[in-house]
Amino acid sequence: MSAREASVIFCRGAAPGKASGPAVVSRDAMCFYLVDPPTGTVIEAGHAIEGRSIAGVVLVCPGGKGSSVVQADGLYQLAKAGTAPAAVVVAEFDTVLVASAVVVGVPLVRCDPEDFAQIRDGDTLEVDSDQEVVTIR
Question: What's the pLDDT at 119?
């Protein structure tokens, strides 16, 4: 956990809910189909967070990638296995990721790209999609 003072980022909520956890920050967009459901480990070769688990964390990434089938099924399989991220913070919404997050119940927010510079890997984030804020601790 970061030792700095808490700060608040205002964002746009898409999939409702509240969640908190350590941040896993990726510079690459996420294809949830390329995550191992039993472990939540990113298996996409060459991905910025390849080999890391996204289970129960707040995933911070530019956005989603892949077709509707691979995005929706990938996130669904993670949720079913209990290894989905606690919440997702993106720089850009895409309709497939928004719909997938709503269906599986993963809070999803969009923050301005410049706010991503404030979030460090390992920070504790509190995501409140309903109030449209992310608190960094």
Answer: 96
Assigned CATH topology for domain 7-136 = Glucose Oxidase; domain 1 (3.50.30)
Choosing from 26, 67, 100, 129, the catalytic residue is 67
pLDDT tens digits, one per residue of 53-68 = 999 999 999 999 988 8
Could you tell me the end-to-end alpha-carbon distance of the chain, in angstroms, rounded to an integer?
Answer: 7
Check if 68 is active-site. Answer: no
* DSSP letters for 84-125: S-SEEEESS--HHHHHHHHHHT--EEE--HHHHTT--TT-EE
Neighbours of 27 (CB within 10 A): 11
Categorise residue 46: left if φ over 0, alpha if ψ from -120 to 50, beta otherwise: left
